[in-house]
């Protein structure tokens, strides 16, 4: 029996967050919360030109707040999400100047702090070369300029900031060990993982 109501899957770009989130939702039901980015034209511009960073981050912030507001108009017994609400702060801290980030942080907390936050986070670890392979294989044209340096910067952001933002259990799983070919076995493994009580700390677990 799953003990958590709000389960968020996190990880770097190309870690497989959405794929795993959809799989867990398919097996266990509940509400599915997926990050929206296809309509964020500022994100596409940012990948071409870093000067669009503030535009992209503000757009993400507004999109997430509207999505979460809609989600929380109803009570859900179980939620699977492929992002944590405050991930905007992780990316913004890496992408914005200190002055812009100070203003952005204040706005983000005003918009996002009052929404329910995850009870547990599953963080998918992958090597930078593996992330690059996944990004290339999914073939989004606007991601073609993502390089190892940027992915490492994002990874550092998660490692430095995620537990500061969320004092809940954070389970780190090596993404390359997730076998999507045997989905029922994978679902059973996650059911066992999510049936246990964890202290609010970061820990590595195996599938």
Structure, described:
With 207 residues, the protein is α/β, with parallel strands linked by helices. The chain has one domain (6-205): P-loop containing nucleotide triphosphate hydrolases (Rossmann fold), CATH 3.40.50.300. 50% of the residues lie in helices and 13% in strands. The protein has eight helices and six strands; from the N terminus they run βαβααβααβααβαβ. The chain has a six-stranded parallel sheet, sandwiched between helices. Helix 8 links the parallel strand 5 (170-174) and strand 6. The longest helix has 19 residues, at 53-71. The radius of gyration is 17 Å and the shape is globular.
Arithmetic mean of pLDDT: 93
Intertermini distance: 17 Å
> Strand percentage, roughly?
5-15%
Determine the CATH superfamily. P-loop containing nucleotide triphosphate hydrolases
Radius of gyration: 17 Å
pLDDT under 50 segments (min length 5)?
none
What is the CATH class? Alpha Beta
Widest β-sheet, arrangement of strands: 2-3-1-4-5-6
Main pleated sheet:
6 strands, parallel
Tell me, what's the shape? globular
What fraction, in percent, of the residue positions are helical? 40-55%
Secondary structure class reads alpha/beta
Can you tell me the CATH architecture?
A: 3-Layer(aba) Sandwich
Number of strands: 6
Q: Total helix count?
A: 8
Question: What is the count of structural domains?
Answer: 1
CATH topology: Rossmann fold
Oligomer category: single chain
Q: Helix and strand succession?
A: EHEHHEHHEHHEHE
């Amino acid at each position: 029996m799953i003990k958590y109501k709000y389960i968020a899957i996190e990880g770097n770009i190309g870690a497989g967050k959405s794929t795993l989130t959809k799989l867990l939702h398919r097996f266990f039901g509940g509400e599915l919360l997926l990050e929206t980015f296809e309509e964020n034209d500022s994100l596409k511009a940012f990948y071409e030109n870093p000067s669009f960073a503030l535009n992209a981050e503000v757009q993400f912030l507004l999109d997430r707040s509207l999505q979460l507001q809609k989600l929380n108009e109803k009570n859900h017994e179980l939620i699977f999400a492929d992002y944590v609400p405050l991930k905007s702060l992780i990316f913004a801290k890496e992408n914005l100047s200190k002055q812009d980030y100070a203003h952005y942080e204040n706005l983000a907390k005003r918009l996002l702090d009052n929404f329910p936050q995850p009870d547990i986070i599953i963080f998918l670890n992958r090597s930078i070369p593996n992330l690059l392979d996944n990004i290339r294989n999914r073939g989004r044209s606007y991601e073609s300029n993502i390089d190892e340096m940027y992915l490492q910067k994002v990874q550092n952001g998660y490692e430095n900031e995620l537990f500061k933002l969320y004092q809940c259990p954070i389970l780190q799983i090596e993404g390359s060990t997730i076998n999507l070919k045997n989905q029922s076995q994978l679902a059973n493994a996650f059911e066992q993982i999510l049936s246990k009580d964890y202290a609010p700390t970061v820990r590595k677990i195996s599938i």
